[in-house]
Amino acid sequence: MNDYQKKYLEQSIMQMSQGELLVLTFDEAIKSLKKANLALEDKNYEKFEEALKKANKVIRYLHQTLDMEQPLSRDLARLYDFITFDLGLVQAGRERRQEELPKLVDILSDLRDGFLGASKIARDTHIPKEAKIVG
Fold it and tell me: By its UniProt entry, which InterPro entries does this protein fall under (predicted)?
């Protein structure tokens, strides 16, 4: 990636809303899990470990950034704990636990889609309505 592309990417990220950044974070975790699955199929254990490590890092970040004042955050924390635990089992079991990776991708995809929908609703509620002249 050249300097112009890096600068464009950086500017794009800086202009994203919180909802868009959250969706991007989920996309990164999903992409890492898919890479891990492909690497495991190819028996490339180094890339498998690297991809799992990245996915785990993203999940830990999502967990750490939860606002625990919100009731939903407790449920999300338990879900992120489950995902982290399951990733550990996959890492230890490799091929014996490979069937877990698509399930984790599905969980993260559902969360991503939910946050995307919520982000769109929140964005729509903040759009000023057209003023009407009465009288």
Answer: FliS, FliS_sf
